[in-house]
Every structure is written in C-alpha cells, then in structure tokens.
C-alpha cells in the first residue's frame, strides 16, 4: 500500500487508496453524528443548545482531537484522541482513545487503522508516554483488530462506573 503524505498543520494528512485522514471540521457535526449511529447510538441526538455547547467546547479544546477518515466524499471512520496532561512519568501526558467507529459498509478496509495511526502520531508529537483505549466489545474480531493496532489487554485492568 502506497502512502503519500502532504504538509498539513498540525500533522500530515495521509492519503491512502483515495481516503483522507484528518481532523474534523466544525461544520461536520451532522456527518459525525450520523457515523456514530454505526457505533452504538440508537439515533441522532436532538439539535439542542446542549449539543451545540458541547460541540463548541470540543472544537475549542486543543487537547481534544476528532480524527476522521473521508472516502467516497463522506466520513466513513473516526476516533477521538484526547491528550491528558499528567504530573507523573516525568510530567509526560497520556492519550485516551474513544469512539472508534467505521460505517458498516466500509469495515475491513483499513480506515479505522488509519485513524488510530493518526491518533498515535498526535500522541507521539505531544510526547505522551502511553495511549489507552477501552472497548465494550467481546467480539474476537474487534479485540484482534485492537491487538493488531498495537494495543494489549494485559498491562492494566479497567474498571468502569456508569453514571
């Protein structure tokens, strides 16, 4: 697979087999929410002041990155990478990956892997000492996907408290 890289702030935009990996644009909220229906959402949230305020907060947070893969003129995959400041590990931050999703019609083509690689580049640029990712999936296919992407499930134990 040939990868071409073009200069693009803050990181290089990657073009791989007619896909573009980049950070989301402010005007793409509705496309992102539609993509999230392929994650676990049962439908689109109501366009409300709360939604718009949350979106504005995300867009204005320099540590919050929504990475998207564009193919066939639409968003087909995405992940969120949040860089979290930290006082341990020689004051190095860590990255948290969430909301990894690919449109059902586009799975198995490397789009999510490309998004995760972009997130890794962001984490490396920020001098993160680790990246973390949680999944609720028990699917061997999904778990093997994350293992192939470089994540392991043996170093730490995650505990979740739902609110």
Topology (SSEs and partners):
Elements: E1 4-6, E2 13-16, E3 19-23, H1 29-36, H2 49-60, E4 64-71, E5 74-84, E6 94-102, H3 111-125, E7 131-133, H4 140-148
Parallel strand pairs: 6-7
Antiparallel strand pairs: 1-2, 2-3, 3-4, 4-5, 5-6
Describe what you observe in this structure.
The chain is α+β, with helices and mostly antiparallel strands. It has four helices and seven strands; from the N terminus they run βββααβββαβα. It is globular.
Task: List its traits.
disordered N terminus; 163 residues; 26% strand; single chain; alpha+beta; Aminopeptidase; seven-stranded mixed β-sheet
Distance between the termini: 43 Å
Number of domains: 1
Main pleated-sheet profile: 7 strands, mixed
Physical arrangement of strands within the biggest beta sheet: 1-2-3-4-5-6-7
**CATH class category label:** Alpha Beta
* Helix-strand category: alpha+beta
* CATH-level-2 architecture: 3-Layer(aba) Sandwich
Strand content: 25-35%
Principal-axis shape: globular
Instruction: Tell me the total number of β-strands.
Output: 7
Order of helices and strands: EEEHHEEEHEH
Question: In which range does the helix fraction lie?
Answer: 25-40%
- Tally of separate helices: 4
- Stated plainly, the CATH topology is called Aminopeptidase
